[in-house]
Amino acid sequence: MRRVRRGASLTEVLIGSAAIALAAVLSLPIAGNARTSARTQGSADNLRALANANAGFNADNNDLIASFDWQGAIPEFRNGQRRTPRPYDLGNGLKHLPKNNHEAAQAKQCFILRYETGRDEHHAKPITLDFNVMPQRRFLYLTMLPYLGGAFPSEAAASPLDQHLLEWRDDPLNYDALPGGNPATAGRKTWQFEQVLNRWPYASSYQATVYAWSPDRPAGGMSVLPLAPAGDGTSIAINVPSACTVQRPMTDVTTPSHKAFLFEEFDYTTGRGTDATHYANPDATVAVQFFDASVRRVTTSAANPGWDPRRPSDAGASASIRYAPIDTRYFPDDTGLATPNPGYYKWTRSGLRGVDVNPGTP
User: Cα separation of 84 and 98, whole Å?
Assistant: First the structure.
């Protein structure tokens, strides 16, 4: 028998092409959802790794919460003679004798970053001392590096959903490519502080609650707490520098399974990518790591709205947060909100003794 070869008709080709195109279109949402789901899981895994690292720090440091452990200058008396402690060596001849523990934490952050990046005074864009930074807020993971495998910057510090930060890590010295463009020509609200810019590529996607490293009630005759909200509420005002940084034991946490230690700063899981919602927005759903090392996603409106530490005697007062992004191409600007968001997680009522998420909250 003779085999007959017949080609496909134009109609068949068109139908086949249409079917392939339709399948591709239908698969896009599925692929996008799968990618977001994988990144969401990766973010939760990061927080679990950070929880384990904190546990390692606890075990090696008398059950203290992970923190910068350099101390402020306290004169010593030996044989009746007053001796001033030696200054800390920050590398390449830069030394500093901190006046208090807050300065000491700033100095230790500077030392770690200089050591890990090699960006000292011989570098074109050196990392130097800056007493305007609050190192514990988004750099607390630096104190856990030995328990995170030692790699720098640690993969656990950046959420796989935080493409904004991951792009900076890939090219930390190309300031023209950073959000807002070159700081020399950018607007006032962009990168006006050089040392903040130099440090930011090594920051974390996860913010630490203030009370992990600060007192949660006035003490020693103070009428106010050492730290309080400032500006739009995302910034922190330092009222008492000598008392604002302390090493706190895990035993200060009275509700470990309901008290947040670290939390995502943005809700990336809505499918809007970098157009996400700030964690303080009641509609946001962010990953939260609790002091018992558990991690779960929580809708912000289900959390304790917090309080205003500027009014410690007023149990009904809440801090206000209107997030002002550095670049609105990446995050929404909440400064125009008619009603500000409360200070969830960061300014929790009663500090480490308070409750962020009640039992049974998803």
Answer: 11
Q: Total domain count for the chain?
A: 1
Average pLDDT over residues 136-141: 94
Q: 294 in a domain, yes or no?
A: yes
In a domain, 290, yes or no: yes
Provide the pLDDT for residue 21: 63
Q: What angle do CA 159, 342, 240 make, to 5 degrees?
A: 90
Tens of pLDDT, residue by residue over 97-135, are 999 999 999 999 999 999 999 999 999 889 999 888 889
Of 181-195, 242-256, 302-316, 329-343, least confident by mean pLDDT is: 181-195
101 within 8 A of 71, measured Cβ to Cβ = yes
Between CA 313 and CA 247 the distance in angstroms is 24
Phi and psi of 303, rounded to 5°? -95, 165
For residue 319, give its domain range: 205-362
Distance CA 139, CA 135 (A): 5
Angle among Cα 60, 65, 71 to the nearest 5 degrees reads 85
Global pTM reads 0.85
Residue 187 located in a structural domain: no
Q: Which of 335, 334, 329 is closest to 163 using CA atoms?
A: 329
With 80 as the cut, is the pLDDT of residue 25 above it?
no
pLDDT in tens, 260-271: 999 999 988 777
Q: Tell me if 181 is assigned to some domain.
A: no
Query: 132: which 2 tokens?
Result: 């305007």
